[in-house]
Amino acid sequence: MLQQEKLVSLLNKVMNQSARLRKGYTQAMFNCPFCKVVKKVPKLEVCLEGVDFGNWHCWICNSCGTSLKSLFFKLRAPKQYCEELHAIIGTTYKEKFQTSKDTEAHILPNEFKPLGVNSNSYLFGHAWYYLNQRGITRNDVLRYNIGYCERGEYAKRIIVPSYDKEGNLNFFSARDFTEESFFKYMLSPWTKDIIGFEVFVDWNEPITLVEGSFDAIAVRKNVIPLFGTSMSFSLKLALVKNSVKRVNVLLDNDALKQAVDIFDRIEDIQNDKIDVHLIRLNDKDPSVLGFENVDNIIKSSRPLDFLDLIKYKMEL
Question: pTM of the predicted model, to two decimals?
């Protein structure tokens, strides 16, 4: 917390204004010095914590960067302020992580075997049995390049890859299909500042946000897995750049607080109105309900309004 307090104090001096703080000290909001548009709710967001640390973006003029150093450079901050910044953050964990993990080529585990290719292996049959129980078809396996591992770090796990808009691997999830592991899910050791299943996304159509890969496969239509319960910086930026008109937030009922947080964040960043629909499935899993039932629930939902938001927050 002390680091965030020092950063906010320094940013206030560099920006020559006082930050509006959100979620404690995790986000600082300013009126943008680049487009000079003054709003009741400031639109230049600076992230001060977590995997998005250092990311900054104006939701009006789209000025953005991925480090506080780049923000200070663009602002032509005095040398003394740049030196003060370095004294506070030094080389951040994010920068260290990016130089080691993110600069490496993203590849699937060496032990990865595609489930679209038949095998006589006992584990191959076991993996397929698990997928059938989840309602996943052969077409799904081929579409998403689903596979599994028999050995190695991801042994006895289903591997579901995610690809970016260019068709390059950007993430994967690994689900235990034997129910023997204490950890049901493992995720690739890369940044989650990505857009899941981006290769399949049509930004001109309503977007549905879900927690994981299997939820996304069950929903099928224009869906983005978050690989958790929070939006990445890249996803927030894409929603604005592509002028998305509707976002469906479909998280487990026990993640209601996170779903409301996502609604709040979309409300904060939008320039044009984005209709946000919070979809509740009454403790049913999307794969249990099936694509048609989930699709009908989404279609019949209505946008959240202020009273809905108050009601949901009272449930938290």
Answer: 0.70
